[in-house]
Fold this sequence. Notes:
The complex is a heterodimer of chains A (110) and B (115).
Chain A: E1 4-6, E2 11-14, E3 19-25, E4 32-38, E5 45-50, E6 55-57, E7 60-65, E8 70-75, E9 84-91, E10 98-100, E11 104-109
Parallel strand pairs in A: 2-11
Antiparallel strand pairs in A: 1-3, 3-8, 4-5, 4-9, 6-7, 7-8, 9-10, 9-11
Chain B: E1 4-7, E2 10-13, E3 19-25, E4 31-37, E5 44-51, E6 54-57, E7 64-66, E8 76-78, E9 87-94, E10 104-106, E11 110-114
Amino acid sequence: xxxxxxxxxxxxxxxGATVAFNCTYSNSASQSFFWYRQDCRxxxxxxxxxxxxxxxxxxxxxxxxxxSQYISLLxxxxxxxxxxxxxxxxxxxxxxxxxxxAGTTVTVRA
Amino acid sequence: NAGVTQTPKFQVLKTGQxxxxxxxxxxxxxxxxxxxxxxxxxxxxxxxxxxxxxxxQGEVPNGYNVSRSTTEDFPLRxxxxxxxxxxxxxxxxxxxxLNSGNTIYxxxxxxxxxx
Lengths: 110, 115
């Protein structure tokens, strides 16, 4: 079983729509959780950290469910510029190792 | 404001050739790492270093060597390239442990094809 699993998508949504997707992780001892954004042929960039209480950053909302071992990302009022691959990232007991999901591709159309 | 710099950006190698991917950071970060990214898979850790003179293996270290003689540089060596090493390679650095709120910064990636 992979450490971090994501629905690859693609999620193809119109501008203004809401899109949400999840990521599951296998290590119950995982301590930190993140969503990264990766544009085509570019490096991953931190979108937001995910906190136990859930958190928002503008149109983006992230939630963590430790009991079911998943995190989610919701994008409201989608923009064309939100088209990207979203990577779920988990840190376990090794303070220096990021475990990446394969990514969820979102395409926002005009 | 260079951040993490990787060279070369693109490289084609023949099977059996050796080469070094260079990585340098100017943020005085102790932690540096190399990941590879393959289609349908998440980034996977190859090797990492928590300071000059200290290196350790990640998830997929076979076929790669690293050294950390300075804080700034963390080169990745392919000893005898194989087609299975065709991938995109990302170097990354962080100021400290990732569970302690430190952000990891990635280089722009190196596209390697082994024929």
